[in-house]
Amino acid sequence: MPRKQPYQNRIELLQGTLDMLILQTLRWGPQHGYGISQAIRSQSGEVFQVDTGSLYPALHRLQKQGWIDSEWKVSENRQRVKEYRLTAQGKKQLASERTRWKQVMEAMAGILNPSAGESKV
Amino acid sequence: MSLNDRQKREQELDEEIGSHLRMAERDLIERGETPEEARYAARREMGNESLIKEVTRGIWGGNWMSTLFQDLRYGLRVLRRNPGFTLIAVFTLALGISATTAIFSVVYGVLLRPLPYDRPDQLVKVSEKSSKGQEMNLADLNFQDFRAQNRSLQGLAEFSSGAASVSGGSEPKRLVVASVSSDFFPIMRVSPIRGRGFAPEDQRPGAGAVALVSYSYWKQYLNSTDDLSSVRLRAENRSASVVGVLPPGFRFPDDADVWIPRELAPFLPARSAHNWEGIARLRDGVTLDQARDDLSAIAGAIKKQYGENVDLVAASVQPLQEALTSTVRSSLLILLGAVGFLLLVACANVMNLLLAQAAARESELAIRSALGASRGRMVRQFMAETLLLSLVGGAIGVLAALWGVHWLLKLAPSETPGLAGVSINLPVLFFAFGLCVVVAVGLGTFTALRSGSDDIRTTLAEGGRGSASSFSTQFIGRGIVVMQLAITMTLLIGSGLLGRSLLRVLSVDPGFRTEHVVTIDLALPPAFAPDQKIRRVQFLNDLFSRLSVVPGVEDVGGTNALPLATGISSYGGFAVLNPQQLSPRMLDILNRSARSNVWDDTALAKDLNDFFGAFGALFRDPKQGGSADYASVSEGYFRSLGIPLLRGRLFEDRDTMNAPHVALISESLAREKWPNEDPIGHSIEFGDMDGDLRLLTIVGVVGDVREASLETPPRPTIYVNYRQRPQSTYRFSAVVRTAGDPASVIVSARKIVRDLDPDVPPSTSSFTAIFAASTAARRFNLLLFGIFAGTALLLAIAGIYGVLAYSVARRTREMGVRMALGASAGNVMRLVLGQAAVTTFVGVFLGLVGSFILTRFLQSMLYEVGVADPLTFGAVALLLIGVALLAAYLPARRATKVDPIVALRYE
């Protein structure tokens, strides 16, 4: 299959972080797919591009795992939209992912910026 | 998930994606884009909508069944749309699978199927091992030590079996009677279904004779009687009461019908009289190696104690199944390997077909991929198609294998062990099914990998003509043909080597003539008292004289060891001994041995041991002693089989029991022991063979004979006179040379034997049939190998033809351009043929290398032909090159017929 050529200069999401970002976004309340992608985009200062091709499989996967739930609502434009919301289990999952992410960040920072760490040179 | 749920979810997914698009569109319009632009931008940003849906649906899971069903349905449609392709592919696969399944069923039935006994994995054959690593039967004293001292066996028994005349049933029959020691049935874990087994008191020396019979004998010759008490059988010179009937199917050893206690036969206090086979059951948790070490330690101790007087140095412990099938194991496995190669060649053809198919479907696949079929989905689709092909092929293959097995069983040499257990049974079906799946996965993965590697956009842009991508497709196609040729070459070389071996074997001079000779096998009572021996001599004398007057009979003779049939089973040490070398005590032992008999006289047996102990050095001295085959024959034996008398005389009527004992020796023995002098008049001691120590005076030298098999060089042989040495003539083969058709003589011969003794049913045959049977295994292996090689060759030809024809068809435009630019027909012909030649040469080269490596496995099946026989290798290479180029000629000629104008308009 042909390699997809990026047509906009945006950073593709790191592998495995999309799930966490979705859960994080849903902490502020129920949201539909498009809304989630827009939220991630604007909150990352237009840097993160959420590929729709990854978003929907991710949403369905999270729902299958029981971390989010969905419901059909009618939007302000009288459109039927499918909204997702965080479950209790999802909240726990988010917390554990955040912890893990923090560890990753600290480790990365230690490597990329040795003087800032506790290394004795 | 029900179908309704699924449809609902599909709809919801559509709606969800739809609303996403609308919202994106609206946002874009709000940012000032025109509705038209907004719609395109939203879709562009979304990417491949079908793919997204496909992946999301994949997340739901639980749908593999419906996907598989969908794939299979689609696959079926694809296959139906290309009936030619489907038919050829299915047929090719069926061919490969049926042949492999048929051979596997034989391998399974003979080698793998567990023996039909309780815990068959614990049953082992125990033998003594000589310093040369040869396995020998057990001698009584060694057996006793093994039995008493081992720590690894639940039980150890000795047994022997042989043809015997059994009367007492509804008619006298020639059957196999087994003589088994007390632990035999407990080891086999078999007990009678009627009556009782052997009781301890039956298995004491001197006990009254009892017998067990097989279920089939009981049914057929004892009328399934429930009252066994009245049944007495006469067998092996005894009258035995039948105490029990063994369960149906139990015929161990050697398809026996009657079992008698081994203790009825005398115990021979010897350590080098290897008369008994050993069977044992391992204790729970004991491994083969542990048992082998255990028994070898005992053997080592025996060797240490008795030194030169014993010939065992270790013990061999072999799984019973392996011991029973050792003669056919390697050839069956080689045949399985060969048929596996055939299957590979068949798969290669299908692979090439699929490749061409995939190329033709490039645009379809590209569209499917563009429409959102994921890579995994496409692979699954290919799998479904190849699975359909291989399952249909496999089903036809199994049906064909049913017939194939029937045919194999008819053709297989009758002495192949375990043939009765060969059939298309459940394990074989499992194997066939597994084979189909492996083939399907292999082919499916291959095509998926191949067709996935092209760029969709290029393919779509080319509009499916695909001349650019065809390069790698063709390259791979030719690679497959190369492998096909190489494998075919290996099979052809294997058949060539086997064929040359058979020719070599058939051109061997066996030392005797087989035409117009009738053989009459007799099992006489094995009695050894002097008067009974004389009666046996009388019986044979009568037989010979009555046979010799039958019209059409030219010569009559007989032997206790017919060449090629029973082989000479007695083989032992002799010594050239001058009568003056005998002390009075030795002379006394010698004379007593002439009057009495070692089986019934234990004091004599002990003295015999002393005698051989005293002359031990002489027997081992390479100048004075040696080993030779022993045969008790009549003079007519040599005349009937056309074995030439080279010096001296044959036996004559005057050589009676009380006249000086005489012997004939074979040419090779004469040359070995008396290279520069006349052996006639010398005397030899060969009493170890029949318990009669009287010296034998050599009166003649006869030609060498290949007794054991055509492949085994003649062994030095000492022939004694049946009138003087009747000890072992209780199993005797009369040989009758006839002037014309042996069939009429056979009828008279049977009548004569019946008149002489109705209780000795003869088994008659023609020597030509025995000769043919001795090469049956070789012919069978060659035939199968030849069939596999021939089929592989046809498939490979089809392969190379197909690839070239396809390549020419795909390159019509190119050919047209070449010819338009001035290439002659010859140029084009050379181009195509050159391509074929390169493919062929690479294939032949790889085939030569592969054969060079693989033919060593054939070693055991070859005779006087090297595993790298240059003639075979060369001839096969030439054949393959010739045939391949011939197959390439047709497409090449078609290429020259391309009309440039038509070709350029084409497509």
Which shape of chain B, going by the Cα principal axes?
elongated
The pair of chains with the biggest contact is: A-B, 23 and 32 residues
How would you state the average pLDDT of chain A, rounded? 78
Approximately what portion of the residues of chain B adopt beta-strand conformation?
5-15%
Largest sheet of chain B: 11 strands, mixed
The largest beta-sheet of chain A arranges its strands as 2-5-4
What share of residues of chain A is helical?
40-55%
Low-confidence sequence ranges of chain A? 1-10, 117-121
Overall strand count of chain A: 5
> Can you give the mean pLDDT of chain B?
84
What is the element string of chain A, with H for helices and E for strands?
EHEHEHEEH
What does this 3D model show about the protein?
- The complex is a heterodimer of chains A (121) and B (907).
- Chain A has 121 residues and is of the alpha+beta class.
- Helix content of chain A is 49%, strand content 17%.
- Chain A contains four helices and five strands; from the N terminus they run βαβαβαββα.
- In chain A, the strands form two sheets. A three-stranded antiparallel beta sheet of chain A has the order 2-5-4. A two-stranded parallel sheet of chain A has the order 1-3.
- In chain A, β4 and β5 form a beta hairpin.
- Chain A is globular, with a radius of gyration of 17 Å.
- The N terminus and C terminus of chain A are likely disordered.
- Chain B is elongated and about 135 Å long.
- Chain B is of the alpha+beta class and 907 residues long.
- In chain B, the strands form three sheets. In chain B, strands 1, 2, 3, 4, 5, 6, 7, 8, 9, 10 and 11 form an eleven-stranded mixed beta sheet that branches. In chain B, strands 14-15-20-17-19-18 form a six-stranded mixed barrel. A four-stranded antiparallel beta sheet of chain B has the order 13-21-12-22.
- The relative contact order of chain B is 0.10.
- In chain B, β7 and β8 form a beta hairpin.
- Helices cover 54% and strands 15% of the residues of chain B.
- About 1% of the residues of chain B have low confidence.
